[in-house]
Specification:
141 residues, mainly alpha, 4 helices, elongated
């Protein structure tokens, strides 16, 4: 197994671990908000819960990427690029989304929103590239 696949396993399990630890804080904040009224803004709670769920999701996607890398026709450089792009999406939906939650809602597009959107675009591109690589392998004769 190539080291890049193992790196994806490490990133994936680390993300799941961090999200599991963060889930306790999300639950605590939600409970506080429910008991004490609107102590925490609903906007903030929604984005914190979204960050928790998406961090878990990106962890699982990293693991699946590592598992399926041997079945995809890609060079080492492409695999590294896919890992980087998927990591950018993980960063966007983890810490950056938590930062966005504390900033509060806004009708205008801010710099943080643009960075998050750009990172997610990179992650979607990595997932699509991997899917196409798997499909090309499936179509081989």
């Amino acid at each position: 197994m190539r080291r890049i696949a193992i790196l994806n396993f490490v990133i994936g399990f680390s993300l799941i671990f961090v999200a599991a630890c963060g889930g306790a804080f999300v639950a605590l904040r939600s409970t506080e908000s429910y008991i004490h009224g609107a102590a925490v803004a609903p906007w903030e709670l929604v984005l914190q819960a979204s960050s928790h769920g998406h961090t878990n999701l990106f962890g699982m996607i990293h693991i699946m990427l590592g598992i399926t890398m041997p079945y995809c026709r890609a060079t080492m450089m492409v695999d590294r690029l896919k890992t980087f792009c998927l990591s950018a999406g993980s960063f966007a939906m983890g810490p950056l989304l938590l930062m966005r939650a504390s900033a509060g809602p806004s009708l205008s597009t801010d710099a943080l929103g643009i960075v998050i959107g750009s990172c997610l675009t990179l992650a979607l591109g990595a997932i699509l590239a991997h899917l196409l690589g798997l499909c090309s392998r499936l179509m081989e004769r």
